[in-house]
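Z., the sequence and structure:
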Amino acid sequence: MTNHALTVYWVVFAILLALVIFFDRKYLLLRDKSKAQHPPYSFSRVQLTWWTLIVFSSFISIIFTNADHNIPQLWESTLYLLGISSATTASAAVIDSGSRAKEAENPSVTMAQDDESDGFFLDILSDQTGVNIHRFQAVILNIVFGVWFISKVTSKLNAGTADINLIMPDISQNDLILLGLSSGIYAGLKLTENKTTPPATAEKPANTVTVSEEQPVG
């Protein structure tokens, strides 16, 4: 039964991951709204998709592997986790919408997401100025906590934990605060990502001699 439960988990995970890849390729699910031919990946969308994939895989596999197909209760911390990711995505969308409105009024405003994609990891780790530490920190934290969450769920499925409400881990308050702060710093600094380029001015070439027209003598 335990091997069956693990198989169900990874099958569900693979199906959801395949759907994410399909919708990204067809509808740009993980990309910024951009004028670029190949829009860059959005950190906030990737983060929300990452935790949705992990939590939903756990939730669905628990339902299908317990004998009565009962629905497990979600810890409050799990809901907060999804809420942090959703709030980050919503904040990023509001910031981009405001920047786009400024761009319409002032052509000198350039949007960071209008740059061409440099690849998945470089896109989520960097803005127009390159790779920066707050994005790097947020990516590392989300990977570490995500892998930890998956390992807890799979180990309890493998052990055949009887209480389905105890299979998904309860994340501590301090860990949630850490993830929330990391996402908040990302959203706050995203305000500075879109640049304003000073309008170009025509400069007089150096060492230019002004020649006046010779007036006719009358």
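The chain has a mean pLDDT of 86. The radius of gyration is 25 Å.

Let me know what you think.
H.
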